[in-house]
Design goal:
512 residues, alpha/beta, 6-stranded mixed β-sheet, 15 helices, 29% helix, binds zinc ion
Length: 512
């Protein structure tokens, strides 16, 4: 407002200058798709953010702590404006249905082309989307955008750390970078970086040159914690590289092992300012570091009985059991019962298990607060996540399932909703050490403690948590647990690739 009123009095020259302010489209279609989940992700499952009125939409988008918010913050400091275009997101699940992919991609491009002025595109996509008809969905979206905007419009893409990036993809955009951290706590910074690079290109200061290296390996999800060995030194090297003013971005994307696509696996990308040789050399250096640490990614994770035994011997609580076979953020069902059954068999007290089970929620609502609850829970979505387990107890509370996370947690989201939910206090606990089952209508990745706290479950009072994820929940759970035990549990996101039959992934990948 202030700028405009000043310009209004400054005459035609200033107005003309103001009109030259560059306008950049900001949008994306985010999905991480699990090839082995037969349940396709449909159009209705994508939440689409509103784009109008423009400034209000941007203000709303900026409330998250994600890369989109980072782009908005940085653009405000830089000298270009943003137009929000389609931004759609769905919880990870099976491949994106053909119709959904086509509708969303067409709409995204239509909105970009409808802009009266389009000087650049900032695209925030996940990078591990599998569409029903395009194995590498993100590559196809990026290709179509380039086709639509022509070769000269600057096009900067950001991806998730779990992106499976194909060599072809970098031919269709000027810059591609990805989150450096897992859990993903650097999302805002990556948005800043993408927008900063866009600003440099628009001012004519940057001429990006990109190089990509894909060592023939799968970096198992169990070892994708960027705050620990073996990955930390490699990610630190990428961060160090960016201190060189000639290097605009250095990325180590670890990939998503449940997408059966040719690009599945690790990727190193280095973007320089007009120095092709440097980009190639530094990307090769990162690729080489990944390849040389391959032996430290050989799978060594306890199975369900061994992990529960270890948890039962703990002297400090609470202990978190990471149910890696039912990783909701990885696209799994969220109703696996293997760990619940094992904890009950072991006579554990003070457990907390979250299950997505709409039928059980309905039963709890019918019983009402304080009412008796007895029925088989979980294991209902498919035949891969254990048998339903009979739980007897009483309904402790009912909730609308919405919760807010204010801290920076994996992915940087703020508003979450797990649908109508119920807390059932199950038999076998005591007044102080309660067995609590949180039943939800929707799957919600356990990236925030608020999911429980806002339903009256306090982590410090519990002894055992079953956490349906892999690395992502660590940002939320490390501060409130004494120990986290990764579990090689069966399921759609089992950590051992040998449990699946890959047909499209490159042959002979180390770790497959
Ligand atoms: Zn991710």
């Amino acid at each position: 407002m202030k700028r405009r009123s000043l310009l209004a009095g400054a005459g035609a020259v200033a107005v003309a200058a103001a009109q030259k302010r560059k306008m950049v489209a900001l949008g994306g279609i985010m999905h991480e798709s699990l090839s082995f989940n037969p349940s396709l992700t449909r159009r209705a499952e994508f939440a689409v953010r509103r784009t109008e009125p423009r400034l209000q939409a941007l203000a709303e988008w900026a409330k998250n702590q994600d890369e989109v918010a980072g782009c908005i913050e940085e653009a405000a400091r830089a000298d270009f404006d943003l137009t929000p275009v389609l931004f759609a997101h769905a919880t990870p699940k099976g491949p994106v249905e053909k119709q959904a992919f086509e509708e969303l991609t067409t709409e995204l491009i239509r909105q970009m082309k409808a802009m009266p002025q389009l000087d650049g595109v900032l695209l925030c996509n996940h990078g591990a989307m599998v569409a029903e008809h395009f194995p590498q969905g993100d590559e196809e979206i990026i290709r179509r955008i380039r086709e639509a905007i022509g070769p000269k419009v600057p096009f900067v893409v950001s991806h998730d750390f779990h992106a499976n990036i194909s060599e072809q993809t970098i031919r269709y955009c000027d810059v591609l970078l990805a989150y450096k951290e897992n859990p993903h706590l650097d999302t805002v910074q990556r948005g800043h970086q993408a927008a900063r690079i866009m600003g440099g290109i628009l001012r004519g200061e940057f001429k990006p040159k990109m190089a990509i290296v894909k060592p023939p390996m799968l970096w198992n999800i169990s070892y994708q914690n960027t705050y620990r060995e073996p990955l930390k030194p490699i990610v630190d090297a990428a961060k160090e590289m960016e201190k060189n003013p000639k290097i605009l971005a250095a990325t180590v994307a670890c990939g998503y092992q449940y997408a059966d696509v040719p690009a599945m696996g690790v990727t190193a990308i280095v973007v320089t300012n007009n120095d092709e040789q440097l980009a190639k050399a530094e990307a090769a250096r990162l690729g080489d570091m990944l390849w040389r640490r391959r032996d430290s990614t050989i799978l060594n994770v306890e199975d369900v009985p061994a992990a529960v035994q270890r948890a039962m011997k703990a002297t400090k609580y609470p202990v978190g059991l990471i149910d890696m076979g039912d990783n909701i953020g990885g696209g799994s069902a969220g109703d696996s019962t293997f760990l619940l059954a094992e904890l009950m068999k072991a006579g554990a007290q003070g457990w907390t298990v979250v299950l997505c089970d709409p039928a059980a929620v309905t039963a709890a609502v019918k019983a009402g607060i304080g009412g008796a609850f007895e029925m088989p829970v979980g294991g209902k979505t498919d035949r891969m996540h254990g048998e339903p387990v009979r739980v007897k107890g009483r309904v402790k509370s009912l909730h609308d399932g919405s919760y807010i996370e204010e801290k920076a947690r994996h992915g940087g989201g703020r508003y979450f909703n797990m649908g109508l939910s119920a807390v059932v206090q199950a038999e076998g606990g005591t007044a102080d050490v309660q067995n609590l089952l949180l039943l939800t209508t929707e799957r919600s990745s356990p990236n925030s403690i608020e999911m429980m706290v806002q339903c009256g479950i306090y982590p410090h009072r519990q002894r055992f948590f079953v956490i349906k994820g892999a690395i992502a929940p660590r940002a939320a759970y490390e501060p409130v647990t004494a120990e986290l035990i990764p579990v090689d549990s069966p399921g759609l996101t089992a950590v051992n690739p040998r449990r699946f039959e890959f047909t499209r992934a490159r042959k002979g990948l180390f770790g497959l």
